[in-house]
Amino acid sequence: MKLIIINGPNLNLLGTREKDIYGAASFDDFFVKMQFMYRELELHLYQSNIEGNLIDKIQEAATSFDGIILNAAAYTHTSVGIGDAVRAIETPVVEVHISNTFAREEFRHNSHIAPFAKGVIIGFGLQSYELAIQSFLIES
Q1: Whole-model pTM?
Q2: CATH superfamily label, 2-139
Q3: Which of 19, 105, 126, 136 would suit a FRET pair with 36, their CA atoms being 20 to 30 Å apart?
């Protein structure tokens, strides 16, 4: 099975930004750990701070991956375009968030992705990604 994790803005700063919310681990270190733990999978990673690049990658991934794990970060709450990209593809998408978005500012309670996602995993730190991976394994 071939999965891609697509991360949005500022997730490249994990480990250094708002450690009280996001923790002290870098995503790159976490991703290496996931690749080791799930050697039977082909895991890929893409991160961009640019909305259009994320939309392009979602569209591209739809034809070359079995599933997408998407943390659009702040774009989750603002980007109709990313929501439309998820709606337009048949490849299953699991939306993930490191923090519990419902325990944060009210604008973070809305997702333009969730209505079109296979599922949403929120608030389990980096383990949210692992839970998303497991959700794909349960179905295979």
Answers
A1: 0.91
A2: Dehydroquinase, class II (3.40.50.9100)
A3: 19
